[in-house]
Amino acid sequence: MQDLSIGFVPLLDSAIVLAAEAKGFFIEEGLKVRLTRETSWSAIRDRLAVGSLQAAHVLAPMPIAANLGLFPLAPKLVAPIALGLGGNAVTVSAALGAAMEAEGDESDLDPAKAGAALKRVIAVRRAEGLPPLRFGVVYVFSGHNLELRYWLAANGIDPDRDIEIVVLPPPFMPDAVEAGRIDGYCAGEPWNTIAARRGAARIVTVKAKIWRSSPEKVLALPADFVEANEETVAALLRGLYRASQWAAEPENHPELAAILAEPGHLDVDRAMLEPLFSGTLAISEKAETTVEDFFLTSAKAATFPWQSHALWFYSQIVRWGLCDHSAENAEIAKMSYRPDIYRKALQPLHTPLPGASLKVEGALKAPTPVGASAGGLILGPDGFFDGQTFDPDQVGAYIEQQKGAV
């Protein structure tokens, strides 16, 4: 039996990793897995780099950044499976939430309304000589940072001029906003709900509305480990895929919430976690709402590592000056996600697999049956709140188009 150490950060989207271990899916695939809880993404990064982890639950852009050499000790990483779609939100302090409501935000999580209200608040603060608002993100190379910036820019807010962005580990976010150290943040659940339930903050929009059907975390493994351990990696992916299907069933949500709530996992109230699996989240101390497709573990090919997702993240890394664009860099980004490994590993399960490895992001306006290796695969709707589309075959033109945007 193969021994593996897998790192995770305490977040809702670690669900299928934790469930695969707790429900015995790893054991059934011949793997003995030891889970290692880490507080920060930099700790995950470093432990992968020095070889103390064989795999980890990581931010979706992290393998791309690693393979482009954008952080110290960057190991070459492979992302052969996604760990779900959605699951994060943008949260602001109670005071900023009230100011946004006064400027027209209707507390319905609409990204355009919330962004327009925030822009007006920023203008008022500037006129009054107040310092820029400070927003927290969990890591520079995170979907949180890149999607927050996309949302702000699409609403006419310059994320490098009109606000300040700082990095904090996700479990620290509620305390930081409550203490007034930050005015808002973008983080994964349950750290938005926790601040909202305290009355310290309000959720103003969610990932599932900014970029619908988009990935939040992936499993990353060192490339040399993948090359040397093909069967082990295949078994690992099968265990995770089976866990993703189990986690998607509503009748399993109470048990899944209990698994995540354990002290060695998220260590939070299970009653706060369970509604999130059906998309019901607290947006303030007393109000809650249900968001369609807020967090998906299995439906809509939620675990498939689309290379178009990798290239969109790459486009935003370039957009915000974190690396230069070249055909070589785009290819490195694309090949950081490995649908070929995913397909081969899952063949014994006879599961529906997309026939393509890339798609135009934002092209699907309704649930759409797609070509797959077996019947029954439905994708979409997907896409960006501002109506833009991303064609991965035109990544250079897309980057040029965004140069003139805020």
Automatic annotation (TrEMBL):
InterPro entries on file: NrtA/CpmA_ABC-bd_dom (IPR044527)
GO cellular component: endomembrane system
Main location: membrane
Statement: the UniProt record of this protein carries the keyword Disulfide bond: no
Keyword Protein transport on entry: no
Stretches assigned to coiled coil: none
Subcellular location: Endomembrane system
Keywords from the UniProt entry: Cell inner membrane, Cell membrane, Membrane, Transport
PANTHER family in the record: ALIPHATIC SULFONATES-BINDING PROTEIN-RELATED, BLL4572 PROTEIN
Protein name, as recorded: Nitrate transport protein NrtA
Organism in which the protein naturally occurs: Martelella mediterranea DSM 17316
Gene name tied to this protein: nrtA_2
